[in-house]
Here is the input.
Amino acid sequence: MSAFVDEKEWDALVRRNARHMLRAAYALLHSKEDAQDAVQEAFLKLLRYQPSFRDREHEKAWLLRVTINIAKNDLKVLRRFSSEPLPETGTQEEPLSPVVEAVQALPDAYRIVIHLYYYEGYSLREISQILKAPVPTVGARLARGRKKLAALLEGEDLA
Here is the structure.
């Protein structure tokens, strides 16, 4: 018996989490379509495994972790089977700000930590739980990511 038989409950869960999941997947994949596929796959895993959550934050953290893992796996497959280098950014309907472009140019390990910290508002401890990485590792990635981001933005006219 599915824990998500109530359509209204399912719709509310999707509305609460889809935007966060999509942004996290896009931060890794740079493609709206690939990010949407990763989010859809994460929701399918939720239906398949039906974990129980302590609260909505636990629910969001679980969905983000699953989405990030799916996106990382998709990225590995894309890199392995692509004969040409992957573009650093996907096609955009509107131009990105220099800061967003710089964040997207960061290596995956730094980009996802910066995304979770600044865009999603998670603490280092929470990020370590989501990524299943030690807190000092997350802190080091955040510090290195900030340093690389500053170097990328140096000389940019942000006004």
Remarks:
- The chain has two domains: 1-91, 94-159.
- The longest helix spans residues 56-81.
- Residues 145 and 157 are 20 Å apart (CA to CA).
- The chain has seven helices and no strands.
